[in-house]
Structures are given as structure tokens and as C-alpha cells.
Amino acid sequence: MPEAPLVVVADPIDRAALERLRAGPCRIVDASGDPTTLPAALADAEILIVRSRTKVTAALLRGAPRLTLIARAGVGVDNVDQAAAAARGIRVVNAPTAATASVAELTVAFYLLLVRGLLPAIASTRAGRWERSAHGRELLGKTVGFVGYGRIAREIARRLAPFGAVTIAYDPFVPAAVDRTEIVPWDALLDRSDLLSVHAALTAENHHLLDARAFARLKPGAFLVNVARGPLVDEAALLAALKSGRLAGAALDVFEVEPPVHRELVELPNVIATPHVGAMTVEGQGRAGAEIVDEVLRALRGEPLVALVPPPPGGRP
């Protein structure tokens, strides 16, 4: 009797989801605790489960001759060499809705912290001062511009409606919004945004999409929020825009290199820096594990997959 298919778990996933997978029609090798065991485990693997830590390179795939499916327990798949996978006929799936609420809530929290100027107020109170002069502004009437208008940006727009904020978006793949958000050209997005919020997938074409030219076009005193991928923003250009006062502040959950190497950027008093935690809520990680295990079980049963990832579209404004 042939052995059951081997599923290799390269990165930690939700414990309940992993136990459900163990009860499925497969064998499991959990290499998440010791990444050095991954290459040996992949020799017979048919399915590989990753989060963001493991980089699924062409070299890694060459050591997995039987692999048929890469399952990313999260949204972004920029850690997977999709061209190399496609050349081998390896399918790639993700968990597209798992982190939507978690990232949307973090983003709105960033908006409020930035616009109200709360970090300096918190720091001064902690330092023993009591500075009660007029401080910060309101979200009411502010224009929030989305770079990319997928699930997360749409969820943020829904959460912003009660605040009375105006939402606009640039997305070459979205001809019209399904809500009150206005789809606008790239330059109009930069001209009009009080808060520029980045939610695009990372591709080779949009690396450093937010560069010195883009920051120079933004209205003086605007804020930048990036919860998507670090390389979408040229950090040297961002640092210059912040130090010159062109930008009033930034909130960054992602960086070009993680952990960040541009210490001057993260140490600026008008920068909020967090360690890529947008999706890292208990609920979000539970959903990511559940969604990806559902997809793996469908693959093992020979059923149609519901979260296949096509090769990412390119395009730079």
C-alpha cells in the first residue's frame, strides 16, 4: 500500500489547525522549530506550508522533486519564487482573507496616533510633563489615499466611514470602487492625500513605488502609513522627506530589510515603527491556519482549490 502524501510545515501555524491537519489523509513533518531540518524533509514532500519566514527559492525547490503545492498561511506570497514554481507546475495557494480585519484595525490605529500626535503626548506625560495645549487634528474631513484597493483597503474604508474621512484610491486593476471610495490617477492620489496608506502587493515593477518624486508631490504635512511590504517604499527618500518636514510623520509595520537596518528612520520622534505585526493577532493567525489547512485538505482529496495565486501582475504608475 503506498504511503500517504507528505506535508512539510516549515513555519509555525495555529496549533488547532495543525492538529486538524494531522488527522487528515497525510503524513506530517513539522520543521517549524528547527529550519535546518527543512531541506532533508523536502526530499519526499508533496505539499509545503510556509508563512513569511521561509523563503521558497528556486534552489529550495530543486531539493523538493515531488512537490506539487506551496501553501502560504497568509496573504502576501513575495517570499515564494512563483516563476520557479510555475515552471515546475507547482501550484501556490494562500489565505487571502485571514488577516483582513487585523491589518485594517492596526492601520486605523496608526491613523489616529499620527493625526492626533499622540506619541509625543504619551512620551511627554511619561517624562513627567503635563502639556495640555492644542494638540493634533481630527480624522473628520481628512482624505485618506490608498495605494492599492484590495480587501484590506476596502475594509479600512468601511471602518473610516463613521469618522467622516474621505477615501480615494489608486489601483490600475480596479476600474471602479464598490463603496464611496473614488478611484483616481496616481498623481491625483499624491496631490490630494492627507494620509497615504500603502496596501499594494509587492512586484518587481513596483519596487520603490514611493520614491523621492512621489514624496515631493505629496502635499506638505501629509502622513505615510505602510502595512503592506517594505520595499514598496524607498526608505532613504522617506527619511529625507521626514527630516525636511515635507512629511509630518509615518507609521511603518514593514521595512525594506527586516529587522530594519535604517535605525535613524525608526528612531525619529514622528515615526511609529512596529515589527511586522499587522496579521499577528490571535484571531488572525487562527484564521490563517484554518484557511490554509482547509486548502491543503482539499488538495489531498483532489478537490478544486479556492485560493490559487496567479502570477502577480506588474505595473508602475
CATH class wording of the largest domain: Alpha Beta
CATH topology of the largest domain: the name is Rossmann fold
State the helix count.
12
Regarding quaternary structure, what we see is single chain
Strand segment count: 12
Portion of residues in beta strands equals: 15-25%
Describe this structure in words.
The chain has helices at 15-22, 38-42, 58-62, 82-87, 100-116, 118-126, 151-160, 186-192, 212-217, 235-244, 263-266, 282-300, and strands at 6-9, 27-30, 47-50, 69-72, 91-94, 143-147, 166-170, 182-183, 195-198, 222-226, 247-252, 271-273. With 317 residues, the chain is of the alpha/beta class. The chain folds into two domains: 6-98 and 282-300, Rossmann fold, CATH 3.40.50; 100-273, Rossmann fold, CATH 3.40.50.720. A seven-stranded parallel sheet has the order 8-7-6-9-10-11-12, with helices on both faces. The protein has a five-stranded parallel sheet with strand order 2-1-3-4-5. Helix 11 links the parallel strand 11 (247-252) and strand 12. Helix 5 (100-116) packs across helix 7. The N and C termini lie far apart (56 Å).
Q: How are the secondary structure elements laid out?
A:
Blueprint lengths: L5 E4 L5 H8 L4 E4 L7 H5 L4 E4 L7 H5 L6 E4 L9 H6 L3 E4 L5 H17 L1 H9 L16 E5 L3 H10 L5 E5 L11 E2 L2 H7 L2 E4 L13 H6 L4 E5 L8 H10 L2 E6 L10 H4 L4 E3 L8 H19 L17
Parallel strand pairs: 1-2, 1-3, 3-4, 4-5, 6-7, 6-9, 7-8, 9-10, 10-11, 11-12
Helix pairs in contact: 1-12, 5-7
Task: Briefly summarize what is shown.
The chain is an alpha/beta fold and 317 residues long. The protein folds into two domains: 6-98 and 282-300, NAD(P)-binding Rossmann-like Domain (Rossmann fold); 100-273, Rossmann fold. 33% of the residues lie in helices and 16% in strands.
